[in-house]
Design a protein that fits this description.
heterodimer; A: 190 residues; mainly alpha; elongated; disordered N terminus; B: alpha/beta; 7-stranded mixed beta sheet; 30 helices; globular
Chain lengths: 190, 1002
Amino acid sequence: MVLILALPPAVVYGQQATTASQRYQAPIVKDSGDLKGPRQPIFFRHDIHAGEYKVPCMYCHYSAAVSTEPGIPSLQTCMGCHLYVAGGSRTGVKSDTAAVRAERAQVQLLRTSARDRKPPEWTRIHAVPGFVHFPHMRHIKALGTNGCANCHGDVQNMAQVYQVSSLTMGWCVRCHVQRKVSRDCSVCHY
Amino acid sequence: MTDSIDRRRFLKVLGVTGAGAATVSACGIGPEPTERLIPYLVQPEDQIPGTATYYATTCRECAAGCGVQVRVREGRAVKLEGNPDSPINRGRLCSRGQAALQGLYNPDRVPHPMVRNAGGTFEAIDWDGAIQRLRAKVAEARGKGIVFVTGAEVSSFGDLVDEWLKQIGGRRLSYEPFGFDALRAGNRLAFGTASLPSYDFANAKYVLSFGADFLDTWLSPVEFQNGFTQAHAFDGARSASMAKFVYVGPRLSLTGMNADEWVAARPGTEGTLALAMAQVIVSRHLARQPADASRLVGLLSGYAPSAVADAIGIEQDVIVRLAREFASSGGGLAVAGGMATQYANGAAIVAAVNILNYVAGSVGSLVTFGADMAVGSAGTFADAEALRADMAAGRVALLLVHGANPAHSLPGAFQQALGKVAYKVSFSSYMDETTAACDLVLPDHHPLEQWGDSRPRAGVTAFQQPVVQPVFDTRQTSDVVLQLAGHSGTFKDYVQGKWRGLQPRGRGPAVAADKFVFDALAKGGVYGEAPTRAVRLANDLSAIVPPLLSEERGSGGEDQTVVVFPHPVLHDGRGANKPWLQELPDPVSKIAWHSWVEVHPDTAAKWGLATGDFLALKSPFGRQEFPAWLTRSIRPDVLAVPTGQGHTAYGRYAQDRSANAFELLGVQVNGYGGRTFVVRASATKTGAHRQIVTTEGSPRERGRGTVEVLGIARAQSLRPGQAPFHHEETPEYASAAVEWWAERQHEKAEIGDYKGEQPRWGLAIDLAKCTGCAACVTACYAENNIATVGEDLMERGREMSWLRLERYWLTDAQGEPQGAVNSPMLCQQCGNAPCEPVCPVYAAYHTPDGLNGQVYNRCVGTRYCSNNCPYKVRYFNWYNYAERGGKYEAFPEPLSMLLNPDVTVREKGVMEKCTFCVQRIRGAQNQARLEDRGVRDGDIVTACQQTCPSDAIVFGDLNDRRSRVSQLAGNPRGYHVLAGLNTKPAITYLARVVAQDTPSHG
């Protein structure tokens, strides 16, 4: 049997590496049809990456703290680990051959994308209309680098990401009022 | 069901079917289509999505060689700014430079190589096939005449082509339609050198232009405008030395409009005037005599003012006064060019002006040789004509064309000669007239997509680098030539190899060559001082006798003098397929999308001509029809037509529009080897009429308070704290009560976001600096995604320009124009805005930081705000200009790639207006917040401010007492437009100062 070394990614922002028994274990998903949120071309599991392995949001969504756009990870970022990580070796999954096969198949889809130089076309979940200019970096600055969950929900526990907040203007304004931040129209609408 | 129908839809349905029958067609606002997010394969390390990366390169829209920094967002070029490191333009850029983006993403570019097939039409071909074909044709044509026509190319590309042509036995002609032949020939006549000097406008104390339009198209307009403003603007510190500017010419161009005095000498007599002034200076010892002044006495003896005043058409004492002023200023700069040198005696006129400079002591101080401007390196017209003759005689077997369109500017004869050339190859990116006549097209990259360099003047090498991936399947011509010349490697390697050798030796420790090139590339080039060269008067001065022009009636009844001048925006026609440039109103006539002929009202009255009536001009060489524009800014005995329109190919915006003024000109080479742009023609009314599209409201200001003008004496007497234009709306007896009431109102209004200290954004526009060049207008179009609406809609007044230039003539006691005041008019961001209370949906509202906000998604299109605006600076989207495939589509693919992602693209039914570049304000505020600091003065630069070559516009926080704008707002020359309406604008205009007391201005 080949020993597959699952290299844990670099951990930043002071989170301690935990042992396998203490760590949150993302469940095996047998039927993704029940999950909320749009189906994506590759069944990318945020609960495995961000929840179990505690990859920080900005490891992949790298420009959220400096730019209006959060950024989508390039294939190079994914392959940084998945060149070696074939999937299916997490504790709790190792023993279930069907689950192992399923998770490996998704990693294989990614590797095929990279080999064929055809990036996956992710379905966008969070979007505001074109007349709204939402600056991510201002919100990260105000809420801190762990503030993503405020608007995007508990992504660390989502097998498939779905939209939690309505993202309507009323929803935005309510938070601005609560935190006594500017409600001026021209801050977002120009 | 609450919130089941949105407001806009409700009002729309209500209007049609009545309240009771309102149908609920959909819940909420219509859904956005699902977007896909496509990641990179490999993240480029210099691109962060949502932020811009800037690349330094060089503008190639004319031969001046200004440096640009291109703002690139996600791999798309969205804005050009001037490069502050370039000594040529110092961070400023003109409209043609700003519109280079529309050349890059032009929908009518040639997308791939094409070859003319047996049936005579173009068909696509792949690059290898095209190059093979070219190689074969070159081999075939060896020894039978190979000619490569380029534009003015003093660059590595030019050197490479010369090297290749030497290999294959060909020759190169660089062709510029307005090639400054007269200037070069005149310099040779006077000083024995045919090179172009550098002109120091910034240190001039008196500027005298003989037709040289140094603010529009002459040599290096951005550089000269920058220098001219430093000399001519009224700054408190240099108030004693505001340089007077006198313009001599038959018509007022953009440059002439900025003059303090217009001397309308008879056409062709400008040189005589210069020599008369020189005679006065020498004979009355008004300046320190140069050592060899005695040689000039003989030449000048026949030019006493009394002898020549009649021929010139102005009075003797005017000549004497001008000579006195010029000499006693201590820094007189006379420049000649443009219309005044486009006559048959142009070179002699230039030589005469050179003599004037010489006797006043400016040669060697304000006019220094040694710079050898590249624009003066183009072949002369004689060379172009020799080529035409060779072609017509069948002595050219292969013609290659790059960066030139001779078939448009040399119509008729050149087109015919083209037919005799065995094989014609074009490297043009556009299907212009010359390319349409060629057999093989290998489209070049746009200058923004390619590596290269240029040497606009000695000491300066301006680098060019690609800022985006090529938009189409084009290939850099320099790579093609490199391949044909048998070199290995790409032009990038070739040119970077050359750059390594540019490191100056002996100044400090040597840097690794690669590092040197990289650092220079970030700066946009290698900038060194031009060497200076002393010149002396030529040995033989006998040729400097400007003969007078003949005014005889021609054989075909030609009795009118017609001047053909370069359009300041479209120039020789190269700008005609860029909608921004077509929609930009000509700075003098305010006419867009069409050509015109300028006619003096007295002449027009004799002919019974009104503005818009077509006049057929027939010269011995051609006949063209132009609609008349009546103006007093031209001599009554002269007609003037601009170039630029009348294309028969080139693209959807340029084709079949108006008339081609070049058709009126012949191809004869005149005495000094140049082309004569003045021709005798007959003018007959055709009876046709056209509504000319013009944005001019009124040519006179009529004391309405839109522009204020001060004589220099009055301006100099103003002290800080004085406010001669201050308008007190409230009468004395009521002022205390009104103030008390206003304070109570403000207290009540200070809640929420409006509480506490806020910036108040404001602008200061100095009319003494604004020349009316309209670079700001095009920059605003580029920055704010403003739609071009086309000629039909502009006729109905539907143009969308957020910033317009209003031009009001300044007149003397006789009512003749002596220049004009130009006032940029944009949303004043009024403190007491008339548009805000009338919006039913609060789309127009006042922001806490002093802007008049316009929220596009709230706007329902009642247009009450525009109705109420006294400045008429609000613009309504009558049609969906952004709709793909729509009737009034403003951004057909791939023009949509130049849209600025930071600014919303407006839909039909929405009002828009200047926002003080609020996207830049928010961007700077975001950046400051990230860096835990406040916004500093100078962090935020509006698009108009950034590009203005005169630095006339200043933006900043009026509540910050140390900011530049608040100091200018407190300037005694400051005033508000239409102040009596009590709108409390945030824009302070500084009154124009004229160097002599003009009795009236309207």
